[in-house]
């Protein structure tokens, strides 16, 4: 890694680890890996929100990325910690550094080109999001297809979920459902993909299946119960049920 790396410990100056040591530790890890990025004031000023977005966008399904409070070492940020091994990384303020971190966690040596494709795919996804917000669903679908064709090492499940939403907006429900299913095959614990699949199934008037898909999303992430968009989906589904059951 190109950042400052050390174990989080009680001592004021924890020992630094070489990239090779990091690779050995990460490869020996059997538990799911989590990256926590400090978004406290100092790190936020140093660009930690951008680091958080990049890592989230290029992460494979088995690596979760979340924000957290202060990790110490203020001024050496943006700071993050890789769990469960408690590997501290500082100065992770560029896209290239974020890609290096993810490469080392995944145990991918000599794969700079592969992770560059991840960053390229992420940039295409961001452009697609802009097109979606403008209602240019066909253009968004093309951009997401380009990103998927790059075969990035991470973030592919998100690309398929996003393309499913674009295809649904275009009225191509069969293709939209297929993309949602691909996203779930890649990331079976991805709540947003279940929501996306539920949207497609509701549009196809498969209301029971849509309800089951939304229920799976809720089981995986109970916090979405408070989401206005999720509540709107459930209300819409209830209305669809009422119309279907009315004489």
How would you summarize what this structure contains?
With 247 residues, this protein is an alpha+beta fold. Helix content is 59%, strand content 10%.
Question: Can you put this structure into words, describing what you see?
Answer:
With 247 residues, the protein is of the alpha+beta class. 59% of the residues lie in helices and 10% in strands. The chain is built from eleven helices and five strands. It has a five-stranded mixed beta sheet, covered by helices on one side. A hairpin with a 3-residue loop joins strand 4 and strand 5. Helix 3 packs across helix 4, helix 5 runs antiparallel to helix 6 and helix 10 packs antiparallel against helix 11. The protein is globular, with a radius of gyration of 20 Å. The N terminus is likely disordered.
């Amino acid at each position: 890694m190109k950042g400052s790396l050390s174990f989080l410990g009680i001592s004021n100056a924890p020992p630094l680890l070489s990239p090779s040591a990091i690779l050995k530790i990460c490869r020996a890890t059997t538990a799911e890996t989590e990256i926590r990025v400090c978004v406290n004031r100092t790190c936020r000023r140093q660009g930690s929100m951008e680091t958080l977005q990049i890592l989230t966008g290029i992460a494979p399904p088995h690596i979760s990325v979340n924000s957290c409070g202060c990790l110490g070492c203020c001024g050496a940020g943006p700071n993050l910690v890789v769990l469960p091994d408690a590997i501290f990384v500082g100065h992770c303020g560029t896209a290239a550094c974020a890609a290096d971190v993810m490469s080392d966690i995944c145990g991918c040596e000599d794969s700079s080109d592969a992770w560059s494709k991840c960053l390229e795919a992420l940039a295409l996804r961001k452009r697609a999001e802009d097109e979606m917000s403008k209602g240019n669903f066909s253009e968004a679908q093309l951009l997401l297809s380009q990103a998927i064709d790059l075969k990035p090492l991470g973030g592919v499940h998100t690309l398929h979920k996003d393309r499913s939403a674009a295809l649904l907006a275009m009225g191509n429900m069969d293709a939209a459902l297929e993309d949602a299913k691909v996203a779930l095959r890649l990331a079976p614990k991805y709540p947003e993909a279940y929501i996306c699949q539920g949207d497609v199934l509701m549009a196809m008037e498969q209301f029971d299946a849509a309800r089951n898909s939304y229920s799976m999303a809720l089981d995986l992430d109970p916090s979405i119960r408070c989401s206005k968009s999720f509540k709107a989906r459930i209300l819409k589904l209830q209305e669809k049920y009422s119309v279907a059951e009315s004489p």
